[in-house]
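Blackboard transcription, Thursday session:
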Amino acid sequence: MSQEKTHIIPYKTYVYVLLVLLCLTFISVAVTSIELGTLTVTVALVLASIKSFLVLSYFMHLRFDQKIYAIMVTGILLIIIIVILITFLDYYYR
Amino acid sequence: MEHAVTHTHRDDTASKIGMWLFLFTEMFLFVGLFLVYSIYRFRNPEAFHQAAEELSTFIGTLNTVILLISSMTVAMSITSIQKGDKKLTLILLGITIFLALFFLVNKYFEWGAKIEHGLYPGSSYLKELGHGDILFFGLYFFMTGLHAFHIIVGMILLGFVYHRVATGRVHSTDFAFLENGGLYWHLVDLIWIFLFPLFYLIT
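(Written on the board underneath:)
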């Protein structure tokens, strides 16, 4: 249980992360208001992925906690990506 | 129970792993719904495009900002409990619960406006619009509704956390319960991060 001593994350870090998240939100609102076709979807989803990466690593402490949580989440995200890919492949080549 | 110093077995790592496992099931629940949404969107591009224009980007953005701020306050509450600042922890948790309520009020007005326009599952107006619109608004109400339900559950959970912090059961050396409550709240935020562009932005 010696690993339980997690270090304290300063308030400032959270404020910076929030500011980046808000910027990304406004960027995605601005970008999607321009009609770019399929590119719009891509940009919106890439920005959403960056945002969720920030939430997972900073707000949900995956960056600072024991490695086991990050390994578990990475594994699950891989499974999710595989499920999505297989569904789309199945849909396209039907 | 006269002796305050009772040694109870505690395993914070296991408790957090348990919380994460639960969150994984939640992720799969929503990933399934996102897949349904994407496939129907491919099949009905025109109707989904028209229908998505009906949604208010302003309310969607406002609710995104609210959820992101509430995620930050609940994350900060873990720092404050580690520093032993009980008062600040309670304030931060209070702000989080208040923002959750604010989110729901916005959702109420947003849904209210849709229903007033005759846009709700099973309405006669939707039936005239056709198959694609029925699918879009069905998924819209189901997915944002399921998410709003998670917000309500999160508020109740954070209410329990608040109570335990207030009564001193959660403190600077035993705060896994607060961390788990926070994890749940961040998951609700994560889901919204994907719901928001899919419904409100991509038109």
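Lecturer's comment: The helical segments of chain B are 12-43, 45-53, 57-82, 86-116, 124-129, 131-166, 176-201.
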